[in-house]
Amino acid sequence: MNRLQNEIRIHKFLTPKKGANAGECEDAIAIDDVGMAFAVADGATEAFDAKRWARLLVRAWVRIKPPAFELQEFGPLVRDLGIRLHRKWARRKLPWYAEEKSQEGSFAAFVGFHLHVEGNDLRWRAIALGDCCLIHRRGTMLCDTFPIARSQEFSNNPILLPSSASKQNQALELVRRAEGSTSSGHDFLLFSDAVACWFLKQTEDGDFEPLRLFDRLIESDDIGGLIGFFEELRATRKIRNDDVAVMNIRII
Q1: C-alpha distance across the termini of the chain, in Å
Q2: For residue range 2-31, what is the model confidence (pLDDT) as tens digits?
Q3: Which of 36, 54, 167, 218 is the most buried (most CB within 10 A)?
């Protein structure tokens, strides 16, 4: 057993946008709690079969040992997954309009995170493209935000990972990486874009009470409470109506 399994607590939450059912959620989460690899992806709503592309990305990434961070590892992984997905589409009998859309391929934002022991130190690494985010904090103090630092940086046109091989090279050149050290009392949050933007805005405004409530709900795995929490945020327009993916990795 990886000794880190006794030193961390993992909580996750996934819910679709208002008006959609769980099967329509285009965000995806994957965890390898032995290899300490974690990933979140957000399939682009307007893209073809975005839910499947997001799930393929996160599930494949956490299975690789060691995780794929360098371009010579990550690039072939994305290309192979895209080829597999496009072949699956080619075997299906699609309506003409869906077939036309499938030729454009699918798109997703992605963030992957890995914890590992290096000597006496606990180290972390992250890789991202698009607006899925990693937040590293201790208590209410932000230690790192990656790849987006402020709520104003979110836009309607993020750079995304495409499934189509003809579009991947340009996108892969924009993949970003980060790393650092950590210790007991720190935690890491992996977010899809809407919840990441909300979280950063609350922090920038110094409005910590909703964040404390969010922490209590996620740490107690209160799924019903979290659903109600985000429904209220949407109703009051404090968060965009979008799918929500959350993962919390807390070092104890």
Answers
A1: 17
A2: 667 668 999 999 999 999 999 999 999 999
A3: 54
Going along the chain from its start, the domains and CATH numbers come out as 3-251 (3.60.40.10)
- Identity of the residue numbered 53: W
Q: Say how far apart CA 119 and CA 125 lie, in whole Å.
A: 16
Distance of alpha carbon 134 from alpha carbon 81, whole angstroms: 23
Q: What is the pTM of this model?
A: 0.95
In angstroms, how far apart are the furthest CA atoms of the chain? Answer: 58
Residue 215 burial (CB count, 10 A):
17
Residue at 208: amino acid letter: F
d(CA 139, CA 134) in angstroms, rounded, equals 15
Q: Could you tell me the two tokens for 134?
A: 């990693």
Q: Pairing mode, if any, of strands 161-162 and 27-32? A: unpaired
